[in-house]
Amino acid sequence: xxxxxxxxxxxxxxxxxxxxxxxxxxxxxxxxxxxxxxxxxxxxxxxxxxxxxxxxxxxxxxxxxxxxxxxxxxxxxxxxxxxxxxxxxxxxxxxxxxxxxxxxxxxxxxxxxxxxxxxxxxxxxxxxxxxxxxxxxxxxxxxxxxxx
Length: 148
Known about the structure:
Layout lengths: L2 H5 L1 H9 L11 H17 L5 H20 L11 H11 L8 H10 L6 H29 L3
């Protein structure tokens, strides 16, 4: 996988799941808040992680979701660093049942089967939309203030 293919995931997932429109973020606060909170906690522990590493982490998280929903494995490991892996984990631990055992237990208790394609799509829809919104925000603030 070359870098263009790696980066293309953002557009692909936006087409598949949709995006949060500017000004409608409040509807998604229940998902945005834990993601942003996890990212902030991670950044406080590792302030070297700038917005460039966050953008890479977002792309890694989107590839991870795609591999969970499409049951296909892409080789994106060569783009992982310690910094962006930490940030990717911060994002995924807010919603992903593989990264967060409590979520997995809750889904099993509620009878949600993530082996079913439709259930999996519905489960990941809002988190993906939130990740894409965070990426748009990162891109905006990079233009305004640079990589930090």
